[in-house]
Amino acid sequence: MYSTKNKILNASIKLFNEYGVASVRLQQIADEIGISVGNLAYHFKTKDFIVSSVYEKLFDDFNLILGNYLLSPSLEDFDKQISSYFDFFDKYHFYFSDLFSNEHQIPKIKEEWNSLINKMDLQIKKRLEFYAKSGFFKEINRNNLQTVTDNVLLTLIFWIPQQKMQSKIVSLFRYKNAIWCLILPYISNEGFPELQKVLNDNNLL
Q1: Sign of the C-alpha dihedral, residues 135, 138, 139, 142?
Q2: Residues near 18 by Cβ (< 8 Å), separated by ≥ 6?
Q3: How far apart are CA 95 and CA 88, in angstroms?
Q4: Does the structure show a pLDDT above 70 at 205?
Q5: C-alpha to C-alpha distance for 53 and 44, rounded to whole angstroms
């Protein structure tokens, strides 16, 4: 059974996804789970406390994904991390408008976002550099490697909100297809059998 606090946080995430963080009122959150605003205020005195707690949960989930970086030197390992990113960005898709707002109502949240995105970017770059050195990639110069890194990062972060804005289907299958299509042209003959297995396992071939 979820505690009232967890119900409040889950309702807040749902409403933030539907209406955006700035637009959601305490009364909406209380109504979503069938409690009074007074009962809600007993657990969270203000909306800022709710926002901070939602982001604490969000950042814990993000750090868990980053902590599972390169558990094995395989393309399958990256595929698993792509799945985790899909689950994360789909669960918290309110991040899109909140992440890139010019001013955040809680500055520490903006700082933490920037730190985690930078870590994500570095991990992708190091992973692709590792694949290049291990022979999974064709010979690729540093500029092209950086371009692939940038494109993969942008797709991981922005693909879901882009699809939602265009009223297109959001699915793990399509998300993975978008990522692997970016990487496929650079896979070497040595790396292709493993990539083929990953694509087959995901029914992408």
Answers
A1: negative
A2: none
A3: 10
A4: no
A5: 9
Would you place residue 167 in the very low, low, confident or very high pLDDT band (cuts 50, 70, 90)?
very high
Q: Among residues 114, 98, 116, which one has the least CA distance to residue 24?
A: 98
Q: Is the dihedral of CA 142, 143, 148, 149 positive or negative?
A: positive
Nearest CA to 113 out of 59, 48, 152, 161 is that of 59
In this structure, the chain runs to a length of: 205
DSSP string, 123-180: HHHHHHHHHHHHTSBPP--HHHHHHHHHHHHHHHHHHHHHHHHTT----HHHHHHHHH
Are 116 and 38 within one domain?
no
User: Quick check: helix, strand or coil at residue 202?
Assistant: coil
Q: Report, in angstroms and rounded to the nearest whole number, the Rg of the chain calculated over CA atoms.
A: 20
- Domains: count for the chain: 2
**Terminal-to-terminal C-alpha distance of the chain:** 42
Q: Which domain holds residue 31?
A: 1-45
State pTM to two decimals.
Answer: 0.90
3-class SS of residue 104: coil
Residues 192 and 155 in one domain: yes
Q: Specify the DSSP class assigned to residue 45.
A: S
Helix (H) or strand (E) holding 184: none
Q: Check which CATH number belongs to the domain holding 103 and give it.
A: 1.10.357.10
Q: If you search the block for the tokens 């979503």, which residue do you land on?
A: 32
